[in-house]
C-alpha cells in the first residue's frame, strides 16, 4: 500500500489533534480567556491606569526614601495580611520591611492592589518568592499572571537570575503551576538548602526562566501560535469536526447496498486504498512481543520511566514513549500506518540516547535494541524507508 507524504501528514495531524482534544477538552476556551485578560492588562498599562514598581525598605540602609514608597510598603503589608490569613502579620511585616527582600507592587488609582515579596540570592542564581497576592475585588482579571510575568522580565533583564523557588500551600499550587512552576526541582539542592524558609505543610516549587523570552508579552506570542494552529488545522483538515446530515436516505435510494466510503458525505476525498491493515497490525504486535521476550536486556523499555525514581526525566524528555504505551496505541488504532509505529520506535531509542551517558547500561541496551529492531523492521516492512537509528558517533 503506497501512501504519499501529503496523506501521511494528514494522518499524523489528525491523530495528534484527536489526542490533544481528548486530553484537554476545555483548554481552548480557557486559553482564549487568559489571552484576553493579558491583552486587557496591557491596555490598562498603556493608558497608565495601572503601574508596576519594584520597591524595598531603604531606611535600614540609611538611604533616603520618599513618603510615597513608605505608604506603598504599608499598603502591600496590609494586602498580604488580608489575603494570606494563615501567615502571622508580624512575620509578613518582618519580610516586607527587610532590606534584603524586595517588593513588586501593582498600583491602580494610587492604591496597591497586588504584590509579590521576594528575596534575590544573586550569587546562588535564584530568587525566593515569599508572598504573592492580589486584592479580592481585583482577582480573576489577569493581574496575578501579569505580576509574575513582570517579575520574570525583571529577573531576566536586570538581575540575570533564571530560577524562582517558592513554598506553596495547597491553595496556591494551582496558581503557581499556571505560572510555569513545577514540583520537580532542577536547581541543585546545595544551591538553595539552608537559604530559603521551609514552611510546614507547603510544597517546594521551581520555575526556570529563559533568557530570550519576554514574559510580559508572552500572551501575544501564545495567541499568535494558537491562531496559527487553528488556521493550519482548518487548512489541513477542512472537514474536521464538521457535522453532516444522516445517511439513511442514501441506503434507501441504493436498495440497502453497501456504499463506498467516498459516497458518504464528508468522506469524498478518502483514499479507498487506505484502510486498517490487519496484517500490518499483526506485524507491529510481533515486533513489540519480540522486545518483551528479552527481559534481561530490554526491561528498561517495557514501562514508562518512574517519575518518582527519576524526577528530572520528564523535564528533559518532552515526548516519552515505551513499549507499554505503544501497545496501548496499537490497540486503540493509533498506528494507521507503519511509519507512525517505526517513528515511535525511533523516538524510544533516541530518548534513551539523549538522557543516558554512553557508558551506562541503558545506553548500551538501546544500542543492542536498535540493531535488533532494524532487522525486525526490515523483515516485516521491507518497503519502509524509515528504520530505527543507531546513535551518531
Automatic annotation (TrEMBL):
Please tell me where this protein is predominantly located: nucleus
Domain named Bromo: residues = 293-363
Task: Return the SMART domains for the record.
Answer: BROMO
A GO molecular-function term, please?
Answer: histone H3 acetyltransferase activity
Q: What is this protein called?
A: histone acetyltransferase
- What taxonomic ancestry is recorded? Eukaryota, Metazoa, Ecdysozoa, Nematoda, Chromadorea
The family classification in the record reads: Belongs to the acetyltransferase family. GCN5 subfamily.
- InterPro entries the record matches: Acyl_CoA_acyltransferase, Bromodomain, Bromodomain-like_sf, Bromodomain_CS, GCN5, GNAT_dom
- Cellular component terms per the entry's GO annotation: ATAC complex; nucleus
Recite the UniProt keywords alphabetically. Answer: Activator, Acyltransferase, Bromodomain, Chromatin regulator, Nucleus, Transcription, Transcription regulation, Transferase
Q: What is its EC number?
A: 2.3.1.48
- What biological process terms from GO does the record include? positive regulation of transcription by RNA polymerase II
Q: What class of enzyme is it?
A: transferase
Instruction: Name where it's found.
Output: Nucleus
Where in this chain does the record put each N-acetyltransferase domain? 57-210
PANTHER family per UniProt: GH11602P (PTHR45750), HISTONE ACETYLTRANSFERASE (PTHR45750:SF3)
Organism this protein belongs to? Syphacia muris
